[in-house]
């Protein structure tokens, strides 16, 4: 039975959410699967991936073939590296402790990169908020200045009308 590690789509239209599963290659995309290995949510930035690395390595060692997208996810989370290191241990090139140490060092480096990306995204988001706030303050200042000018113009107009009005009243009194 040929086994594939692939994505099984869930979620609603326009908002996909995937399960990472080991399934028979002949099964439907969203059909029966042998083992659920994790989840993948591309709607968040960065994408949320929760993967059982040891389970994925077990399936890979037993001959499961990942699809292209699943291969990218497994590589991103280190399952392919762990499988590679396990082959090295089997051949005697590494000890179990060396392989685990290499894998942990790789995980720490990867986690640092992910945290840097999250920080950069939050900084960019904060800068965008600050720019929007500054633009809004500028627009509000222009509105206030325009409102003051309009109020001053109206006050000046009223003053000219009032100064003209007493003369008009005086002429009306003379006529009466």
Mind explaining what this structure looks like?
With 176 residues, the chain is an alpha+beta fold. The chain has a domain at 3-94: S16 Ribosomal Protein, Chain: A (2-Layer Sandwich). Helices cover 64% and strands 19% of the residues. The protein has helices at residues 53-61, 68-77, 79-91, 96-175; strands at residues 3-12, 15-24, 35-41, 48-51, 65-66. It has a 5-stranded mixed sheet. Helix 1 packs across helix 3 and helix 3 (79-91) packs antiparallel against helix 4 (96-175). The mean pLDDT is 89. GO terms for molecular function: structural constituent of ribosome. This is Small ribosomal subunit protein bS16. InterPro entries: Ribosomal_bS16 (IPR000307), Ribosomal_bS16_dom_sf (IPR023803). Residues 158-170 have a biased composition (Acidic residues). One of its GO terms (cellular component) is cytoplasm.
């Amino acid at each position: 039975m040929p086994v594939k590690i692939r994505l099984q789509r869930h979620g609603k239209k326009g908002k996909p959410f995937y399960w990472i599963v080991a399934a028979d290659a002949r099964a439907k995309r969203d059909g029966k699967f042998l083992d659920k290995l994790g989840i993948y949510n591309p709607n968040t930035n960065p994408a949320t991936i929760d993967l059982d690395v040891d389970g994925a390595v077990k399936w890979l060692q037993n001959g499961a073939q990942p699809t292209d997208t699943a291969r990218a996810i497994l590589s991103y989370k280190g399952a392919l590296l762990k499988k590679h290191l396990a082959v090295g241990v089997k051949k005697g090139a590494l000890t179990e402790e060396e392989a685990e140490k290499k894998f942990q060092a790789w995980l720490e480096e990867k986690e640092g990169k992910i945290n840097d990306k999250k920080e950069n995204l939050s900084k960019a988001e904060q800068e965008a908020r600050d720019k929007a706030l500054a633009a809004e303050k500028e627009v509000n200042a222009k509105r206030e200045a325009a409102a003051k000018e309009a109020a001053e113009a109206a006050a000046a107009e009223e003053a000219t009308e009032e100064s003209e009005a007493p003369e008009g009243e005086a002429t009306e009194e003379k006529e009466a």
